[in-house]
Design a protein that fits this description.
Blueprint (H helix, E strand, L loop, with lengths): L2 H11 L15 E4 L4 E6 L8 E6 L4 H5 L3 E8 L5 E7 L29 E7 L2 E8 L3 E5 L6 E4 L7 E4 L4 E2 L3 H5 L5 E5 L12 E8 L2 E8 L13 E11 L5 E9 L19 E5 L4 E6 L2 E5 L2 E5 L8 E8 L2 E7 L8 E5 L10 E7 L14 E3 L4 E3 L11 E5 L5 E5 L5 E5 L5 E5 L6 E4 L2 E4 L4 E3 L8 E6 L16 H6 E7 L7 E5 L5 E5 L7 E4 L8 E4 L8 E4 L2 E4 L6 E7 L2 E7 L9 E5 L6 E5 L7 E4 L6 E4 L9 E7 L9 E7 L2 E6 L2 E6 H4 L11 E5 L13 E10 L2 E15 L2 E14 L2 E4 L3 E2 L2 E2 L2 E2 L9 E5 L5 E5 L4 E6 L2 E5 L8 E4 L8 E4 L2 E5 L3 E5 L5 E6 L4 E6 L4 E5 L3 E7 L5 E5 L1
Parallel strand pairs: 30-39
Antiparallel strand pairs: 1-10, 2-3, 4-5, 5-6, 6-7, 7-8, 8-9, 11-17, 12-23, 13-14, 15-16, 17-18, 18-21, 19-20, 21-22, 24-27, 24-34, 25-26, 27-28, 28-31, 29-30, 32-33, 33-34, 35-48, 36-37, 38-41, 39-40, 42-43, 44-45, 46-47, 49-50, 49-52, 49-64, 50-51, 52-53, 53-54, 54-55, 55-56, 55-63, 56-59, ...
Length: 899
């Protein structure tokens, strides 16, 4: 091991036993020796952590702060070297490295937890050394190669010069107040008089090419005299002291006195404009002027804008044993002045949704819209705002620093976007922000009146917080869930005090018009059609984290009898009608909330003007055109049932077509009749089928009503074992084609199905609900005439009968079924007949307590499958799967389900 390094490691391990005086309590620059580069914190990529680099010193305060470091003494080692931590002024974080290689194979300079204590060895040739011990045999130091560390066994060749920062002149409001409009001076440990009594408003001015400030006192911005002009802190002509002690000027508030005026012996510009300089080492402020009020024998004289070499410092002199704040060029104690955050103007309601009512005045060019409400980007106005209309709403976000951002919640221009899953959607092009992390200015806080800026061209607004549900992302538009779309329909009832009980109705030639009476209402189902941009549009004040969603729908008559809601020109007139024309199927409509709750206008999504449907009360005609203020038609939207697929509660049903019912016979699906084909002892109970949802974990977007139909089922928690209706094997007879319908033994666990005997490499195959190999998933598709069709949802084939054979087919007319709830047959339970007990098992029936008695077992068709005399008190008899009838000599026959 390197001998010098061994000493270094030992030194780091030693505990300091002597005190050490820090280099100082100011931030310093660490400049690479022989270059113009400074150790600087940078963020090359906003998504990544801070890192350090050697770079030229920036020109503004923020850039200089990122290159300033406070060396904080940690310990003095036995070697005599001292260990420091370096705190960056801009980030307030320690210089610290994880010492890991990056993707380029080098040790990067990203700031991360790890090595954060460094030997800071001054007085060596060429500057100072900065390095740290790492592990057992390495030294870490900052390389002059951009973005890399030196990691090795030798001390660094790079040296750094410690350089004090150069003071900067302050010139802008932001230099003092940041993003706020006010700030505070703090005179460390002393009374700053008028400068520290309350918040100050900085007013930048340039006097003879020099950047200076005037200062207003918050709450006393205006003079109480005359025309109540703005007033500022001014070096006054009132003397503090006496002819036998100090004679200095006091400070007071005064208006601007122009040059040449008698007061102040020719104006007071120089007496109320102050130059501020900041020492970046500790951010202390020096406050000077080049003008002063002097006193000779108690009489004043003014030296205004004395020019180069005339500098007067705000500080303290002693009078009657106490410090007095004044200004002078000699024998004055300069205070330690720092800046503090001002008190921001607060919006009483904080972050939320507001209406903004214009209170224009003076030079505001919008005075003609006084008392109206802003919409969109604030360039337009409406007569009223509503909690239901997002175009009249603005999202206001309060930031931690007391500033605010304001953005309208709705925009009409839409751009096409593509989601991560390839879905096409629309995104409203957001309106520009009215405020972007800027302060509000109080006008009448008690009444919610604020100004958006200092000049007269900015709006004065009344902020009223609206009672808006921020969790409702569809506010302003009627929204339907997929569940509602799949099971319901809508009717449109005219919302008008002038006409009652008027509905959109279907008249001659599929034309839509108004008609009186709910019985004449046209029921339209909301459907999703071909994917187009206008189907789903995202809007809201998205720059501030507020997102809203507008969904447009195609509307078709329930069961698609006459097509979809559309409009087309007929003899030059736009006619609103139902149509099946291919070119009209993509017309979409959304429903815009009106000023009254639960009333909506019907707007087409495909047009830039958002044309609407209008109902003429006088003749009940329905037209389609651009909206006209004051004559827009609003409807109450009523619900109706028009399901595509029937929803079934889990339970036992008889599923029939006329006199025939669906059942299983020797594992094959059959349509059989109770009276004709069953023994007289059998009843409809033999046709009891168990229906259960195919989904356990459906998910909120899954509104598919998919089911399994069982003949005999054992249900236990998330597991069902039984014979399930399935498609298996091809069927063909003449032109009819399809799949044979059978009842197949299966185990269903949560959202998977496993068929008995379906193995691969000796392992059981399992299929998800929507797997094509799952041939048991069915839906009950509702037909307009009543009843439903049983559809295999993974193949879209429907249950039909050909030559008495039940099949799933897509080229044979399907059967129409009805359902009737029924009782479950005795299933895997003990069925007691007197002292005799019958227990159904897997492929058998156990009869107990019937020794010496004759037992006959029959299937539901009346066919005898067993006929024997029981030789023991507990006999097991083979029996086929399904419902069987067990008749014990001298006892009443019972039914049981054999698995």
């Amino acid at each position: 091991m390197n001998k010098r390094f061994s000493t270094l490691v030992a030194a780091f391990a030693a505990i300091a036993t002597v005190s050490y005086a820090q280099i100082g309590d100011k931030y310093v620059h660490l400049k690479a020796n022989g270059s113009a580069n400074y150790l600087t914190v940078t963020k090359e990529n906003p998504a990544k952590a801070d890192s350090v680099k050697l770079a030229n010193l920036g020109s503004d305060k923020a850039a200089k702060d990122s290159a300033l470091w406070l060396p904080k003494f940690v310990e003095k080692m036995v070697s005599g070297d001292s260990v420091f931590q370096f705190v960056n002024k801009a980030t307030k974080k320690n210089l610290s490295f994880a010492v890991k290689k990056n993707g380029a194979g080098a040790y990067g300079t990203m700031i991360a937890p790890g090595v954060d204590k460094f030997v800071f060895k001054t007085g060596v040739a060429g500057g100072s050394e900065i390095y740290a011990a790492y592990g057992q045999d390495s030294i870490v130091s900052i390389s002059t190669t951009p973005g890399t560390l030196n990691v090795g066994t030798s001390l660094p060749s790079e040296k750094f010069e410690v350089e004090a920062p150069v003071s900067i002149s302050l010139a802008t409001v932001a230099d003092l107040a940041g993003k706020l409009s006010t700030f505070k001076f703090e005179f460390k440990g002393k009374d700053g008089g008028i400068f520290t009594a309350t918040d100050l408003i900085p007013v930048p001015v340039n006097v003879s090419g020099v950047d200076k400030y005037r200062f207003q006192v918050v709450g006393q911005e205006k003079s109480t005299k005359g025309t109540k002009k703005d007033q500022y802190i001014t070096i006054d002509t009132t003397m503090i002291g006496s002819t036998t002690s100090i004679q200095v000027a006091a400070f007071k508030l005064d208006t601007i006195v122009a040059a040449g005026g008698a007061q102040y012996q020719g104006g007071n510009e120089g007496l109320q404009t102050f130059k501020l300089s900041m020492d970046l080492g500790n951010d202390s402020i020096s406050m000077t002027t080049d003008s002063i009020v002097r006193f000779v024998n108690g009489k004043y004289e003014v030296a205004v804008n004395g020019g180069s070499g005339y500098t007067y410092i705000v500080g303290y002199k002693t009078f009657n044993g106490a410090p007095v704040l004044c200004i002078d060029s000699a024998a004055i104690e300069a205070p330690f002045i720092t800046l503090a955050k001002g008190t921001p103007v607060k919006l009483a309601g904080g972050t939320g949704v507001y209406s903004l009512q214009l209170k224009a005045k003076g030079g505001n060019p919008n005075v003609g819209d006084n008392d109206k409400y802003l919409v969109g980007d604030g360039s337009a106005y409406v007569a009223a705002a509503s909690a239901y209309i997002p175009s009249t709403q603005f999202y206001v976000k309060e930031h931690e620093d007391g500033t605010y951002s304001i953005q309208g919640r709705e925009a009409t221009s839409i751009s096409t976007k593509t989601g991560s899953n390839g879905e096409t959607y629309g995104e409203a092009i957001a309106s520009s922000l009215l405020l972007d992390e800027e302060p509000l200015y109080a006008v009448d806080v008690a009444n919610g009146v604020y100004h958006l800026g200092k000049n007269d061209q900015k709006d004065t607004l009344v902020f009223k917080k609206l009672d808006v549900d921020l969790t409702n992302e569809h506010i302003g538009y009627k929204y339907y869930t997929k569940e509602e779309m799949g099971y319901g329909a809508v009717k449109f009832n005219l919302a008008s005090a002038a006409a009652d009980d008027i509905y959109l109705s279907l008249v001659q030639d599929s034309v839509i018009a108004g008609a009186k009476g709910a019985e004449k209402a046209l029921e339209l189902r909301l459907v999703e059609g071909a994917e187009i941009t206008q189907d789903t549009v995202y809007y809201g004040a998205q720059a501030l984290g507020d997102t809203l969603v507008r969904v447009a729908y195609a509307l078709e008559q329930a069961y698609d009898a006459e097509g979809r809601l559309a409009h087309e020109k007929v003899s030059g007139v736009e006619v609103v009608k139902l149509s099946k024309k291919a070119g009209l199927q993509n017309q979409r409509f959304f429903f815009v909330a009106g000023p009254a709750e639960d009333s909506y206008k019907i707007v087409e999504a495909m047009t830039t003007n958002n044309d609407i449907l209008t109902l003429n009360i006088s003749n009940l005609s329905v037209t389609y055109d651009e909206p006209v203020a004051g004559v827009e038609t609003y409807f109450n939207i009523e619900g109706a049932e028009a399901p595509v697929y029937k929803k079934m509660e889990s339970g036992h049903y008889n599923i029939g077509n006329g006199l025939e019912m669906l059942t299983a016979s020797a594992g094959v699906a059959k349509m059989l009749r109770v009276g004709d084909e069953l023994k007289a002892a059998s009843t409809a109970d033999d046709f009891s089928l168990y229906v259960d949802s195919a989904y356990v974990n459906r998910g909120e977007d899954n509104t598919e009503y998919g089911y399994y139909i069982y003949k005999g089922a054992e249900v236990k928690n998330d597991t069902i074992i039984g014979s399930v209706l399935s498609a298996k094997g091809k069927f063909a007879a003449d032109a009819a084609k399809g799949d044979s319908a059978i009842f197949r033994s299966a185990t269903i666990v949560k959202d998977t199905i496993a068929y008995e005997g379906d193995l691969k490499d000796g392992k059981q195959n399992k299929y998800k609900v929507r797997d094509a190999k799952n041939t048991s998933l069915v839906g009950f598709k509702v037909v307009e005439e009543g009843g439903f069709e049983i559809v295999a949802l993974n193949s879209n084939k429907k249950l039909a009968v050909v030559n008495g054979v039940v099949i799933f087919s897509d080229n044979v007319a399907p059967l129409t079924f009805t359902t009737e709830a029924t009782e479950a047959p005795t299933a895997n339970e003990d069925v007691e007949v007197s002292e005799v007990t019958v227990i159904a098992g897997n492929g058998n029936v156990t009869v107990a307590g019937a020794q010496g008695k004759k037992v006959v077992i029959s299937n539901i068709l009346g066919q005898t499958v067993a006929n024997t005399v029981i030789a023991s008190d507990n006999a097991t008899i083979a029996a086929p799967q399904g419902v069987v009838v067990v008749a014990v000599e001298g006892e009443e026959a019972v039914k049981a389900i054999v698995k």
